[in-house]
Amino acid sequence: MIILAIALLACSLPGITIPRVYVQKLVLEDGSNPIVTAAEKQSANEYLLRAWMHANPDEVISTQTHPIHTITIKEVGDDIRYPKTVIVNIQLGNFKRQWQAGDIMHMVLTHKASGQTKGWQITIPEGTNLIKYLDEPLVIPPYADK
Fold it and tell me: For the segment 87-137, what is each residue's pLDDT rounded down to a tens digit?
């Protein structure tokens, strides 16, 4: 009941949206982890990620212009307790417009060195829990020449 009251209050205040995180595992064509540079308070420099909601295409968040608590590409895990994994992490609550179940979020990832891109989208599911795609890795550039 308290959580519902907080959510309703957050929706009623201008400029405040409900937090919700989208996490997506990233792999290369051979299934290995992409090489990413670990930098404190910074998204992986090898890639540029942009994201926007279909309902508001003019509001684009990007790893180039937004802080890591909004949008990032990073390696998680320590290879002891959890395997090292490269992920996209996007905080939906940092979009100015309140996200809704059924909204479509578009993303484009660019590998800076090759210029190759990967675009995809997800439909925001019902609820407020973590949107997790760790068992369904996304194959990203750089791609092998064919």
Answer: 999 999 999 999 999 999 999 999 999 999 999 999 999 999 999 999 999
Q: Which residue has the tokens 């990032």?
A: 72
Number of C-beta neighbours around residue 144 at 10 A: 8
b/e burial code for range 89-125 (CB count within 10 A of at least 16 → b): bbbbbbbeeebeeebebebbbbbeeeeeebeeebebe
Q: Is there a domain that residue 54 lies in?
A: yes
Residue 125 domain boundaries: 18-139
pLDDT digits (tens, 9 = 90+) for 21-32: 999 999 999 999
Q: Report how many domains make up the chain.
A: 1
d(CA 67, CA 76): 17
